[in-house]
Every structure is written in C-alpha cells, then in structure tokens.
Amino acid sequence: MKYAVILCDGMADKPLSELNDMTPMQAADKPNMNYLASKGEVGLVRTVGAGLKPGSDVANLSVLGYDPAIYYSGRSPLEAASIGIDLKPDDVTLRCNLVTLSDEPNYEDKVMVDYCAGDISTNEAAELIKYIDEKLGNDTFKFYSGVSYRHCLVWAKGEPHPGVLTPPHDISDKIIRDYVPSGEHTAVLYDMMKKSYSLLMEHPVNKRRIAEGKRPANSIWLWGEGTKPGLDSFYGKFGKTGSMISAVDLLKGIGKCAGMNVCRVEGATAYIDTNFEGKVQAAIHELKSGQDFVYIHIEAPDECGHRGEIENKKRSIEIIDERILSPLLDYLKESGDDYSIMVLPDHPTPIATKTHSSDPVPFLIYRSNEEKDSGISVFYEDAAAQTGVFIEPGCELMNRFLQI
Questions:
Q1: 267 — alpha (psi -120 to 50), left (phi > 0) or beta?
Q2: Is the separation of the CB atoms in 275 and 266 below 8 Å?
Q3: CB-based contacts of 386: which residues, under 8 Å, 6+ apart?
Q4: Domain residues of the chain, as ranges?
Q5: CA separation (Å) from 375 to 12, 15, 351, 397?
Q6: Which listed residue, of 135, 145, 241, 253, carries a Cα 20 to 30 Å from 2's Cα?
Q7: CB atoms within 10 A of CB 317
Q8: How far apart are the C-alpha atoms of 28 and 375, rounded to whole Å?
Q9: How confident is the model over 209-252, as pLDDT tens digits?
Q10: DSSP string computed for 370-391
Q11: CATH 3.40.720.10: does it fit domain 2-73+232-402?
Q12: Are 174 and 164 in contact (CB under 8 A)?
C-alpha cells in the first residue's frame, strides 16, 4: 500500500458573497477531489486543540500524528532545523519576517502594510538578512536567511519565553502599536526591530524595489519563539518510510526532525506561482524509489487567504486538483499498487479575517481497494460536517489513515 497526503494549507474558509455564498472549496472546479470524496470517507478533524494557537506548526504536527501538547516546542526551531542551524539546548529561536511597514515617523505608529514584503525574492532577502546580521548580530544574536520573507534569529542562551510576540500575518492593515513585542524580556528584540527600519530603508535592494514599483522590505518582525525540538521518527512511530515535499522551511523542518526524506523542489515559492509540477514529480519519484508515504504540502491557498485574494484562493484549489492530484492519481493507478490518499487543509485561513482560525477542517480519505459510496458529491466544509464523522484530537487522524 502506498500513502499520499495532499495538505492544502489554509484551504478551509467561510461562505463569501462574492462567490454566491459559497466557500472557495465549494466554488472551486475540482473533479478529482470530489470523486475521491464520493468514493471514500469524509469528515471533520480538529487539528488545533484548546489553548493552542492555530498555526501551521501546530496543525501540521497534528495531521502528521504528533500530539502538539507533547511535541510542540515552538515554530521557529522547526524552521531552523530546515535551514541547517545546529541549535544548542539553551538556544532560543525566533521567526524573523521581512515586512513592509508604512512611513510614519514613530515606529509604533506604523501600519503593517505587507507581512511578506511584496513576496520578496529569496536572493534579495538573503542580501538584506546578511546586512542585518552584520549590523545587529553579535555573539548573542545571529540572523540566518531562509526562503522569501521567512528567516530565523537565534538568541544564544536566550529567554525561553520572551514575552508576547504577534505573528505579522495576524495584523495586516493594522497599526502595530498594540502588537509590538511586550513583556519582561522583549526590550532587546523590539530595539532590533526599530533599528532595522532605518537600516533597511537605505539599503540598495530596497531602493531598487521602490524604483521598480515594488514594496520595500523595510523592517524585520520577530515572533514564533521556541527551543530545540525533539520529534520521534516517523518510521519509528508508524513503521512507514516517509518523504516531505514543501516550499516552506517550517514543513521541511518538521520532516527533517521526524527523520523523513526532505525533497528540494526548484521553483517552489509557496504561492500560487509555485512549481506545482515539480512538487508532484518529486512525490512520484519518492514513491518510485520505494518510499511508503509522501506528504505534499501546498502553501498557496493559505497565502491567498492572508492576502484576501478570493479568486486566487479558489484558483489555487483548482490548480492543486489539476496539477498535483490528477498526475499523482494517474501514476498511482498505473503503478498497480493499492494506494490511499488523504486530502485536507491544516487549518482554515478565512478571507474575511486574513488569518488562521482554530475551527475543525474537512478531510477525505480514499482507498483504492475499499471504494464506497460516501453520499458526498462535492468536497467542502459543510458537506464534511454533515457526515457526522468527527476526529478529535487531530493527531489520531494519521493512525486512521494508515489503519494502525
């Protein structure tokens, strides 16, 4: 039996008047998902338990079968693992976004214009992070570049709980005054954020971006603190060899910490322009090479949700169906092996709020050797709720999928 998870990050949503009171999932033309749902099991799963923040870190750990209450030690250390940072037990890591803030004179009066700095390229971002490390880094603080706007700060022998830090994608279009770092140990972090603004505004990369009509990456934003993670291996936990295919360091870090094979896909951007074909070909290659399990993570619906892009979110779901699921199904059918496919989001990212929610998400599980009439013709949120199938806690879903 071969196993494939198609994780459509942030795909779940609420009905929108612009889509005739349908959700993007419901409105999307996705014949492959709908067929699998009609011949499989459909339900809801709570991937984010009570008291946990609805981040992709918590939610994806849950989907992969790792109870966040046991295994979660913060978001940024998982990203640090992907980047290749050798963390010490007493290091604290933080996610370092490159963001676009408005130009008010006082830092706290600025508005969060863009949490991803106009989708800054990885090459441009690497140059800016290197510059920030030269100016603000020292023996205690070290900046590391990641992908696009997503980077990492390591605080050597830092405070394990450095105050209240807010994800920038939670405060789009808001004045940052009430969301800057607060708490006993955050003064040094906030000072670096403020200093970064004047440094970055004068950098040639940003001057060039402004001249080209692009948004400047004019500040760092620190959040997502954590300490060195310790995940059990996926193989040891489930007895399956596994591979992770994703554009983002968070998922690649989870895969690495879980002992999975982490695939690098050229041109994977984590947005609607990502290399969809490259991702599915990487998954097929892993299965052909003998892997039992592939986890294909697609960030595009989440990014579109954060940006309030209704049509792009709907279209991203259609592209996943057409350019990921369709060729994967073709390969699996031709391989002659029995196979199981699970499709779901990790969490909702509603267009209306532009940020994550903790609501349960729809899932489908299809088994090639156990087709059945589910009574579902369209895979979307309300249809999944109407089946009455509800999985809680979410970390039990992987056992159900693998039939363990």
A1: left
A2: yes
A3: none
A4: 2-73+232-402, 82-226
A5: 20, 22, 28, 21
A6: 253
A7: 29
A8: 19
A9: 999 999 999 999 999 999 988 899 999 999 999 999 999 999 99
A10: S----S-SS-SHHHHHHT--EE
A11: yes
A12: no
| Angle separating helix axes 187-201 and 122-136, nearest 10 degrees | 120
Q: How far apart are CA 302 and CA 9, in angstroms?
A: 5
Q: Which residues pair with 365 in a beta bridge?
A: 41, 342
CB 159 within 8 A of CB 92: yes
Helix%, strand%, coil% for the chain, nearest 5: 40, 20, 40
Find the radius of gyration of the CA atoms of the chain.
21
Q: Are 41 and 365 in contact (CB under 8 A)?
A: yes
Contact 217, 120 (CB under 8 A): yes
Report which DSSP code applies to 377.
S
Q: Which residue bears the tokens 């979307």?
A: 380
Q: Which residue type occupies 336?
A: G
- Token pair for 394: 């979410």
**DSSP summary character for residue 259:** T
| Number of H-type helices and E-type strands within the chain | 16, 13
According to DSSP, the residues that pair with 223 across neighbouring strands are: 95
- pLDDT on residue 269: 85
The count of residues in the chain is: 404
Report the relative pairing of strands 92-101 and 112-114 from DSSP bridges. Answer: antiparallel
Structure tokens at 396: 């039990």
Lowest mean pLDDT among 75-84, 301-310, 347-356: 75-84
Predicted TM-score of the model (pTM):
0.86
What type of residue is 400? R
